[in-house]
Amino acid sequence: MARIFCVANQKGGVGKTTTCVNLAAALQQAGQRTLLVDLDPQGNATMGSGIDKRALQKSVYHVLVGLATLDQARASSPSGGYDVLPANRDLAGAEVELVALERRENRLRDALKAFDADYDFVLVDCPPSLSMLTLNGLCAAHGVIIPMQCEYYALEGLSDLVNTIKKVHANLNRDLKIIGLLRVMFDPRMTLQQQVSAQLENHFADKVFRAIVPRNVRLAEAPSHGMPGVIFDKAAKGAQAYMAFATEMIERVKTL
Ligand code: ADP
Ligand code: MG
């Protein structure tokens, strides 16, 4: 059975896509059959996996509105080896179209069901909003991974996301739980970051992943080569952290 995880945070630029792409590549390298679903019309996870978003015949948009099945739209990441359900600007229109469709918040869940046996892990890269697209991600998932920077305002944004997850759990998806908070772009020289990090550990205890992803320029350079950082430079500190995170995820799913 595929374990489905949403990588979500309604803030932009917090490391969602970087986390999805690198976790997908690291899981695939560890022998886990992995699918990355790009739910962001910006298509950054698609491009970062080495797939040209401008050349797609079919994309996640077609799957969500019922014009294609997953196997007609998925592609394999040439650099990462995992599968990708890619996205591009077409997806921006889906928001409006979905509203008129039956089971509008369950479209992704329904589309994944028939291919459950193909994967060990499915990772969903959510857009920076709590929109119908993110809702489709949350309704399809067993759990949420929340990447966050250890900044003062990060905690404030977190309560909105946690409330949304609680509402989805109560009304739409009883399976949904927070798997954990992942500290990303971490700079240990910053006292404030250390303080926020300690606060997170106090407050959320074992919901905070042990792996910490440092700020690392190699992770930021990798997408321009169409490669996950863990493939582009596997010796870099950032890549090592994402590989440790993948190991932690493989352990964690055994306890779910
Ligand atoms: P989101 O998907 O939440 O908008 P991204 O993953 O696209 O965030 O990250 C935002 C920017 O920060 C990107 O340019 C990305 O390359 C960069 N970035 C992400 N994680 C790191 C990191 N650990 N170290 C350095 N740069 C990073
Ligand atoms: Mg993104």
Automatic annotation (TrEMBL):
<feature type="domain" description="AAA">
    <location>
        <begin position="3"/>
        <end position="178"/>
    </location>
</feature>
<dbReference type="InterPro" id="IPR027417">
    <property type="entry name" value="P-loop_NTPase"/>
</dbReference>
<feature type="coiled-coil region">
    <location>
        <begin position="91"/>
        <end position="118"/>
    </location>
</feature>
<dbReference type="InterPro" id="IPR025669">
    <property type="entry name" value="AAA_dom"/>
</dbReference>
<protein>
    <submittedName>
        <fullName>AAA family ATPase</fullName>
    </submittedName>
</protein>
<keyword id="KW-0175">Coiled coil</keyword>
<dbReference type="InterPro" id="IPR050678">
    <property type="entry name" value="DNA_Partitioning_ATPase"/>
</dbReference>
<dbReference type="Pfam" id="PF13614">
    <property type="entry name" value="AAA_31"/>
</dbReference>
